[in-house]
Amino acid sequence: MYEIFSQYPIAFWISALASVILIGISKAGFGAGVGVIATPLMALTIPTAEAAALLLPILIISDFMAIRQYRARFDRHNLMVMIPGAVAGIAIGWFFFGYFRGNERILKIGIGLLALAFVSFQLGHARLVGVIKERKPNVGEGLFWGTLSGFTSTLAHVGSPPALVYLLPQNLPRDIYVGTTIYFFTITNLVKLIPYAQLNLLHVGNMTVVLILLPVSFLGVKLGFLLNQRCSDKWFNRLIYGLLFLTGVQLLFGIDIVSILK
User: What start and end residues bound the annotated signal peptide (predicted)?
Assistant: First the structure.
């Protein structure tokens, strides 16, 4: 067990601990999707595919913890529309990962673009909620956004923006909306186990790392509940989105921003 610590650089362990804590905080409902920074942040220190693989089991366990709070509160119709699209998107992501796995630069550019796209989405999200008109999107839209969500989720666990674009116009009750997204991503993450396993991204070595990081995720959840009770997530979100923007730029252009600022 102790040998595993020497197999990764210190920078990896720092980024991994921060990423897993943020996933836990996000699953506790504090911060608007701040867990999305996890894969880009870890991809700064290890190969992109390995970063995504390490986080998948942690996300699945966190999903099952969240499902307990929303057992029967979800929209069945939306799930029936979005999940087939998500499966198609996962298949496309499977091909993308397999085809470009030997080209780490392409993968990091892809993750960087997704990170910057998420920041852009979040910046416009508040305005979007204020002006968007309530309507019922058609099945074709659900399949499209479900496919895009499955694809981006497979690459970097960044599937929430496409899903929100489809769900937000419906003005669902908050508990139904949250429950639907939780069930959608739980199923999506479980399906993602198939391509990750086939690409040999899940193995004994990184599962040992997962076991080490898992308790940290639980601490993140507890911290998230505590933060929910005591403070606003406004400035916390801004800090994380700023960090995500810098991380995305670094991945996209292959530069070390910290070194430039020295």
Answer: none
